[in-house]
Amino acid sequence: MNTIDQYKFEENGSEISFMPNYNFLRTLKWWLAAGVLVAPVLYYFKNILSEKALVIAVSLWVVYMGYFLIDLLFRVPVKYIFDKREKCIYRKLFFTQKIMNFDEMTYFINEDSGGYYYVIGKKRNQFVKNYRISNYFSGSAASRIKEDEFQNTILFPVLDALNVPMNRPQ
What we know:
Blueprint: H1 3-7, E1 10-11, E2 15-18, H2 24-44, H3 51-75, E3 79-83, E4 88-92, E5 96-101, E6 105-112, E7 115-122, E8 130-132, H4 141-162
Antiparallel strand pairs: 1-2, 2-3, 3-4, 4-5, 6-7, 7-8
Helix pairs in contact: 2-3
């Protein structure tokens, strides 16, 4: 899967849009299917396991399924829209919300637990409220290749549309 498909990147004359977490959709569907298949197994073992062990197993299953459903419903479908006509950036989940104007935006790299990712935010409070626009990257060679693809196919076209100065690798 190439980078444009991983981020569901779309560019037309008036706007650029992409979904930073779209590539997790396939993985989440498999883990959700695995979680659904656990339910009949728990039902089968309900007479074999003790009551406390069954309560613990069902509780873990409920938490497991809850996390995946939350990711599937609230994390994956987030879409960022960069509207060139109105010079605004929108975040779309269930409804479209204006998050900032082009001239208010800054981008930076945020480091988190051994990895890093690209984020955007308002210049004045970029560390208080920011929005992740890329996957996590590490220092490995494969991750550097994915980061270069992200930069060339998504980040640089977005920054060009916003007229944001950037340092491109030579």
